[in-house]
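Translate sequence into structure tokens.
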Amino acid sequence: MESVSVPAGLDLVSGGGVGLSPEKRAALGTSLVLLQRDYRFQRVWFWGCIQGVRGAYYIAEGLGPNLAAPRSRLYSLNCVEWNLLPPATKEMVAQAEQLTGRFQGDPSFEYENPEADAEDAEGVAEVAKEPIMKEEARLVATIDQIDRAVGIIPRGALMKTPLGSVCENRNFEGLSLTEAKKLSSYFHFTEPVNLKNKTLLEKADLDPSTDFLDSLEHDIPQGSWTVHLERGDSVVVLRSLLWLGLTFYHIPMTKQYGYVYFGTGEKNSDLPFML
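Result follows.
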């Protein structure tokens, strides 16, 4: 969610039991402004918090003029001092997918290879004891996974220019209440996959300036999102069952929307068996 919308946004998603202490909110209100100034970001988003065993990581994302460009990600252990994270790579994501269990809360913590099977050769067992990645790298990969899987925006909130860059749509005045209750009215804020597989006839009904991302209605497994009306049907809240802790909100007929993550950074791999 936008840094300027953090106080109001956290209140709107508090129905899921997430939030920050008054001290953390006050610290964020000051530090995110300084973060935007020091790094010269056009805008800063408060991404959320990944709770570890011994501490928590508070995450922020910095964006430039092109909102589709790779985002700069930073973490803090106290909501005051921020550290820039390296870009996520395919190798990082692949290694992070092999790891299970909670984060420790220590960026320098080193993870070892998963234990080798008893039938493996002794040489393989020795390799298993070697560290494969630090927790900071796992943090980068996990944030990237969550953003790609469940980072969402309302339909029409962003606009793609003829030159290919993506910017805020100034004509967007919010979804109607009827549209806001439909999964098809929300898009993944990442490189589209399903859209590329559509036929020319299917694409003919789409507006290339606003319908350039994948819709949530085709997410697999079906049923991985819940849609609720809260605060007297004045706020639409979407929650992910795949990445528990991801909450999105939108106030219909307004420009107010955003998402935030408060969780352990663990994917709910059992979801297909729970539906």
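Note: The chain is about 25% helix and 25% strand.
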